[in-house]
Amino acid sequence: MREVFHQSLEDVQGRLVEIAELVTIAIDKATRAFGTSDVGLAEEVIEADSIIDEKAIALDELAIEILARQQPVARDLRIVVSALRMSASLERMGDIAEHIAQLTRMRFPERAIPKGLKSTFLKMGELDVEVARQLTELLRTQDLAITEEIRNADDDIDDLHVSVFEKVLSDSWQGEASATVDATLASRYHERFADHAVSVAKKVAYLSTGDWTPATDTIEIVVGPTQ
Amino acid sequence: MREVFHQSLEDVQGRLVEIAELVTIAIDKATRAFGTSDVGLAEEVIEADSIIDEKAIALDELAIEILARQQPVARDLRIVVSALRMSASLERMGDIAEHIAQLTRMRFPERAIPKGLKSTFLKMGELDVEVARQLTELLRTQDLAITEEIRNADDDIDDLHVSVFEKVLSDSWQGEASATVDATLASRYHERFADHAVSVAKKVAYLSTGDWTPATDTIEIVVGPTQ
Q1: Which residues of A touch B226 (CB under 8 A)?
Q2: CA-CA to B188 of 20 to 30 Å: which in A66, A83, B2, B198?
Q3: Where is the PhoU domain (chains A, B) (predicted)?
Q4: CATH of the domain at A109
Q5: Residue A196 domain-assigned?
Q6: What ipTM was reported for this prediction?
Q7: Residue among B76, B191, B216 with most chain A CBs within 10 A, to mutate
């Protein structure tokens, strides 16, 4: 029974890694599309999100089947419940990549990336892609050292998120309302993407260390510099 | 054993109702604070969110304990797993109420509610409060007729969300960048709050009808009129 259970867990882990890989592709394409106004690339991300959704639902069904058939207890049970939560976070990360792609498509042929914030959003995009890659590696290897890298990248993204609002709310901001809307939404999407990655990383760490950090415990920068 | 299980489910249902009641109080105070720039009321919401978080975590622990001790299968298992997901959605709704309160506090003593959008945001706030009340009633009574009311209110909120962007992106918009930022974030918070309520309502309906709608299936209006 233990043997069967551990085979099931390997299946769960493999599916989490697979979904994280798809999320990494999605955020990489979405942030490149956003930076270069590449509507074709944006369309690819929007099309592919349903695959992430389907794989997350399939993983949830597998987890429920494991609960029903193998009735794990103690740590084994928490691993399966955590997998349900990780799949929800990964699915949400895919949605956010899609939102960034939708912003790009909505503004096309104009640029979605607001004037004066190009370097900031390019950096945020690179960091979100790096976070997704690190999260995939963490899920594959369970190397907890990666968790710290994800937290550090999230801190850098939070700083950039704050800097976007400092820029938009400064006297020097010349952007029209549409640019302000885009900067506000895009910055929030980038920041939330990394928050979800931190939330997944904390669950992986918890499963290794038993040090439970509730899903509610990610630091969320709600809005600009005065917070 | 069935008897014990049904007592456990009643406990779970009672806790979901209790959390939904706290979320209703939070969104009622948060939207009134946002509409009247009442920073004291906003502070109450921000303070109280940790109670919602704690109750959601306690409910999750109870659900995991039920899985471990009573090892439900089939529909019983799905009820417990759904409770975990509903608690996550309710916890998120509490976070969103807190975000609306934080916007109010951040702009104080100025008004967080942007000029020209007061009636729109007052209406969105009333609808979000109504949705939270209806959701609490749905969780208490399992009366599926309420699900339709929640979907209809969510549709109205989506229309108001779109109208906010139509206003902000129109030539008549005179708001400064800070007002555009506030309108963008506040409108998204209001819209997402109702999305989460629809997601919970769908799970309640599923548990009664077996008609599963994945959590990923809520219609999310990402941004303004051109979508």
Answers
A1: 106
A2: A83
A3: 17-103, 122-204
A4: 1.20.58.220
A5: yes
A6: 0.91
A7: B216
